[in-house]
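Protein in question passed on here:
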Amino acid sequence: MITLSGYRPAHADLLHGRWLPGELIAPRHDGRVAEFGAVDVPEPGLCDEERLLVAVGAGLVRYCDIDWVDRRARLEIRLLSDFHPDGTHNLLARALETAFTVFALNRVYGYVTPGGPDVAPMLREEGFDREGELPGAVRVAGLAVGRTIWGRLRER
């Protein structure tokens, strides 16, 4: 079973690696990183609108832009290895459980960029709905590429 714990300075080495910024589920070794200008995971700030949790050996779970009034946040999962459906699914399930029970959020959402692992079946299985498209959200080799928005409510 995957356990999420709070980020500590001893986890700083986990922040290094190239991931697509803002991606809902991002594998560590993603062939798209050179094209998208991938970045390291930023260190958690001192603000109240972000939480960074660690699943040792599996990945990082980041809740961004937390709106404590309306109880929603953007979810980013950074895998520490390549995409494996079973392990990724377990980490996603734990991230949702934490969002809805520990942080008492009502909604989480995230972005999916074309060309990566096919996460749509996993997202649907976990109750996510494809909510829309962000045309031209990122640039790839000088061209604007859209992202899809996927969201999940606590009560489905």
About this structure: The chain has one domain: 5-153. The chain has a mean pLDDT of 82.
